[in-house]
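@channel anyone free to eyeball this complex?
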Amino acid sequence: MSVALSAQDISRALTRISHEILEKNQGASNLVLLGIPTRGAHLATRISEIIQSIEGTEVATGTLDITLFRDDLRLRPPRAIMPTKIPTSGIEGKDVVLIDDVLFSGRTVRSALDALGEIGRPQTVQLAALVDRGHRELPIKADFVGKNLPTSKNQTVKVLLAEIDGRDEVSIEEEAK
Amino acid sequence: MRHLLSIADLSKADAISILDTATELARVSDGAVKKLPTLRGRTIVNLFAEDSTRTRISFEAAAKRLSADVINFSAKGSSLSKGESLKDTAMTLQAMGADAVVIRHSASGAAQRLADNQWMSGSVVNAGDGTHEHPSQALLDAFTIRKHLGMGSADLSGLSVAIVGDVLHSRVARSNVLLLSLLGAKVTLVAPPTLLPLGIDSWPAEVSYDFDAVIPHVDVVMMLRVQQERMTDLFFPNAREYSRYFGLNAERMSSMKPGAIVMHPGPMNRGLEISAEVADSARSVITEQVTNGVSVRMAILYVLLAGGALEAGSN
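replying in thread with the prediction:
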């Protein structure tokens, strides 16, 4: 196991991503941040707090569970469905930023796009990921990346966040389970 | 979990996870687009060898909201009425590639028999077997109680429920006693002695013959239908007497706790076990039970079918 990002690295990456989101969207007024549970949801909350401290205005933040839209449901044991909380302003005509911890095959993001389609039609959909580990199976690319981590397929990227795991850390482990 | 045959097979954690899943799925039913792609390409057969309105429509709606294909199959108008055995029917369904069978049958244990024998590889959901169990009804009742009186807690601890009426013939009562006590509620059965089954002492519930003594102390009054079609004997002198001692009318309802709710699994015999006034009152959550039924059955199908295919050996 080797540590790829320390707590400080994660904090810096999130701050940079927040600035990049604001720069690309020219402010926070039309933004909606949607975290993909579980860890993406916590990252969305953190980015939302950072943006608020920069801009001084609150940014609409929610969660989007994609379990029911997965294309690998048949291949895995059933997963618990996590809450989907869409901000009251909705997503119609908004600039939606999807936030997840690790971008890997791209299948989660594909499911998230399907899930979004059921809710409304955003103006744009962007993607932020704390870690991009490569090995995409679909034509999907992140707009904002905390760190590109070149990995081999039999490694696992483990993201720990203080809200769930007690501390912040990203590490790479050999031998996928 | 591969089959849902009896509440007795569920752990407390299983039951709570089905209720939590149903809570999330209920939001879908509230949304503009009432459809999810989750079970696309799966086939669910509704095998109803006994009459049903609510349960069959509810399972059909649940399956369709999850994008599964539904084949309805009822005894009338099928070869079941020509005397085809359950085994042959099951093998036909297997040959047609059913991923799940929702079965309602007048014989207790029919669902278990379908699941135990290797006639078919799909999941079996018990939608009511004789006077044995009706687990999806108990789950939707628990879901409704939790929604109204649970105050955010995961289980039903601290609540007390009276189940009143024809316990002897009621699969709903059997499943509910098991599930509600599993979830921590205190259950009291209220019925004339003739309508209580043998061995009631071993059930995790108290028994009372006096409805008026029980009603002021409970949070939920669940009325059971008097199942005249199953009554081969004289269980009470006449309908008026039954109604006077064990029916829920407006006067009895007035002694209920503030906030307490009235439930009924349907179909109701208005005027016999429940008066029309009570059934249509603000305390009654009877139509809401039907609405919740769809969400709970979606949760059941999700838990059984999402990811079940490999395990079941098909695909």
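from a first look: The domain at 7-133+291-311 of chain B is CATH 3.40.50.1370 (Rossmann fold).
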